[in-house]
Design goal:
64% of the residues lie in helices and 0% in strands. By secondary structure, the chain is mainly α. It has a domain of 34 residues. The chain starts with a helix and ends in a 17-residue tail after the last helix.
Length: 105
């Protein structure tokens, strides 16, 4: 890509963002070069991310049923213990330890 092409792409992207923020979605899509097929794929990605990030928020607030409902999943079985998990994946003999550490940067 040539320097002028990059500049034109950046300018079109910022202009498209301004039109999108103003509610002029069709104009924004034309400026950004987004086709109907790309928009459909983009909408699916946005929907996926929105649902999953909302589910994460509910799960962090210990609202597990709401999180599962957002994902369209039924209730999950109770979690196995670490020992059961290791045995199920064939790592029963492995010595596993974990901990928590904070790092100041």
């Amino acid at each position: 890509m040539m320097k002028g092409d990059i500049r034109r792409t950046i300018e079109n992207t910022y202009a498209a963002a301004a039109f999108a923020e103003a509610g002029e979605h069709e104009t924004a899509m034309k400026m950004a070069g987004i086709t109907a097929t790309a928009k459909t794929a983009f909408d699916k990605v946005v929907s996926f991310v929105d649902r999953h990030m909302s589910a994460v928020s509910f799960a962090e607030a210990a609202c597990f049923e709401e999180a599962e409902a957002l994902l369209g999943e039924g209730p999950r079985r109770k979690r196995d213990s670490l020992e059961n998990f290791l045995e199920n994946v064939g790592l029963r003999q492995v010595n596993v330890r974990f901990g928590w550490a904070t790092v100041d940067i």
